[in-house]
Amino acid sequence: MKTEDIKNKKSAILLGVAILAAAIILALISSASGGEKTQLGEVIPEETVPYNDNVLLVSADGLRLVDSGGNTEWTLDVPSSEALVRTRGKYILVSDFSSNKINLSYADKPLCEYASGTNIISANVNKRGDMAVACDDDGYKGMVVLLDKKGREKYRWHCGEGYLTDVDLSANGRYVAVSLITTDESSAGSKLVVLDTKAGTVFGQTTRPDTVMGTVRFTDSGKIVTVSDSELVGYNKDGKVRFEVSFGGRSVSEFNIDDENNMAFAVVNSKNNTTLEIYSGRGKLRGSYEASGELKNLSVDGGVIAASFMRDIYYISSGGKLRNTEKCEHEIKDLCLFGGGRRVFAAGGSGKYSIVKIR
To answer: What is the pTM assigned to this prediction?
Structure first.
């Protein structure tokens, strides 16, 4: 082989290696940035949900994940015209009340669909993809079903006393917490029931008289909290009370308990405006902020609380201090903080939205 031919072959090989390396680098960059993104355009979400530092938009068209730059990361076509959406980790559970179907996905990857034979009351998911579903039950006052991430039934409990209002499950999927309303001829009360699905027994229960318990949650630390029309209560996983916070006869217009160390409540006071109260995971008041009107659309991320009042977005610390306000150019129907608590997605009407930097 001639020297010149060898040089030409070496040059061709080096060029090929360079092109291949460039292709690999571009692929890695694309993979790191989440692949191809598209601009959001007009959108009318019925609900906004925080999801792994981004915001999940829920509408009749399905789910859409949006980053803080206003780009669409992905979309998912699932029934969501009358939906309850729950997320933990990367799992997304959509309970559609019109079809009584549960859809579970891992980000934009559909995993399973579960069809309930009766009306769905509530449902939740843990970080392993296990699901707990509360629904009506023929012959009983309700039923709780535990499913794995493939939609296979693992446990079933029939409720003969009280009417189910909410359900959640522990991180390992063993324990299921159920809130229900009990009634007699003269009064209404509530009960928390904790089920041990491995042993097939009731692990613990607590009765709360003269209150309507509507929300139950397992916290990241494995404890349980419930919210009713009159109180916030914390429990151990066996249903024993850890703390009690009474609202003192005041009504709660809105609350957010996504962060167990910064549970936020908009409480209506005697002046018909709201006081934002923030509680720790031990039920201690961390701080409060009295607004001049009604605070709405509470969103919490890492000690940052965002709320709206008319067209203003409020940034309030976990200690109850007003740090900043930013005006939005349109009405605010819903808002959601992006991860890090620096920007917020504000949804309006007629396809309008804003991504606002609040700190």
So the answer is: 0.87
